[in-house]
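Hi there, hope your week has been kind to you so far. Please have a think about how the structure follows from the sequence. I've dropped the whole record in just underneath, so have a look:

_____
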Amino acid sequence: MSGGGVDHLNWYKKGAIPFGIDLTEAAIDLTTKRLNFHGFDPKGRLKIGDAENLKFEDETFDLVYSWGVLHHTPDTEKAFFEAFRVLKSGGQLKAMIYHVPSWTGWMLWMRYGLLKGNPFLSPCDAIYNYLESPGTKAYSLEEAEKILSTCGFKKISLKSKLSPGDLLTIKPSKHYGGLNYKLIWKFYPRRLVRLLGDRFGGCLLITATK
C-alpha cells in the first residue's frame, strides 16, 4: 500500500522503479504529491487496488514490499498468495505483520480482558477487536511460516521486533487520555522491556524468496 508515500520516495531516491497500490484515492493523491514535490513522476504506477486481487501479471516484480498492511486485509493468506504470484522466480517478499505473543497483545488483554472481567479473552482477540481498526490480526512465528510455506515461499526468515506500541513510545490516542493512562505512559518499564529483547516484539519481520 502506498500510504503516505515515504517509502516510495526513498525508493525513487535510490533509483528503483516502484509500483504502488492503495484502497483509497486520497493515499494515491498524497503519495503522488509527495513524489512530485521532490521532482519525481510516478507515471501511472500508483493505482487504487486490493492486496487480495492484484492487477498485475504473474512474475512481474523482483520485490514485493508491505509494511503493516496485510494483517488488516480480510483474507491475509490470499494476499500472501497474490504476493507470491506476482513475484519473479527468485524474487523476494519483505513484509511486516503483527506478532503474538507480544507486549502489545498482553497490554490489550489486560485492559480489555482482565480488567473487564473477561480473562479468557485471548491476546489475539484483543488485538483483533481493539488495536487500530477492528479485524486486525496477529500471528505467531509458526503460523506465519505455515502460511508462507503453503504459498510456496522458500528461504523464509522470520524475526520478531519490538514496536513503538510495545514500548509505549507512541502518543496515546483519545481512548487513553485519562490520568491513569498518563501515569502508565510515564512509569511504563521501557528499560526492562528493551533488556528482555525482541522475543515478544509486536512486529513480525518477514523475508521470503519465491
